[in-house]
């Protein structure tokens, strides 16, 4: 249960937060993927958790892009 909640929220929040720090959606995508793979051990989870985390990552991608257009940074 906690894995599903983390898979739903963590990629989205990481994408938005890292985009605000790096001002790059691609950099945020790489950092989020690395955190999800190695800190969350996504490769050892069930396929449902992996699919939910990919959907959340895509949602975070669109939210980060929108945020970056709204406030481009430096």
- Report the portion of residues in β strands: under 5%
Structural class: mainly alpha
| Major sheet attributes | none
Average pLDDT for all residues: 88
Shape: elongated
Number of strands: 0
* SSE topology string: HHH
Q: Helical percent range?
A: over 70%
Distance between the termini: 40 Å
Low-confidence stretches: none
Provide a descriptive summary of the structure in words:
- With 74 residues, the protein is mostly helical.
- The chain is built from three helices and no strands.
- The mean pLDDT is 88.
In a nutshell, what does this entry contain?
This protein has helices spanning 2-22, 25-39, 47-70.
Question: In terms of topology, how is this protein built?
Answer:
Elements: H1 2-22, H2 25-39, H3 47-70
Helix pairs in contact: 1-2, 1-3
């Amino acid at each position: 249960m906690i894995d599903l909640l983390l898979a739903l929220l963590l990629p989205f929040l990481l994408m938005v937060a890292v985009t605000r720090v790096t001002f790059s959606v691609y950099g945020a995508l790489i950092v989020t993927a690395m955190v999800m793979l190695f800190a969350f051990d996504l490769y050892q989870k069930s396929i449902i958790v992996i699919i939910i985390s990919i959907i959340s990552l895509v949602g975070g991608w669109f939210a980060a892009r929108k945020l970056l257009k709204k406030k481009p940074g430096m």
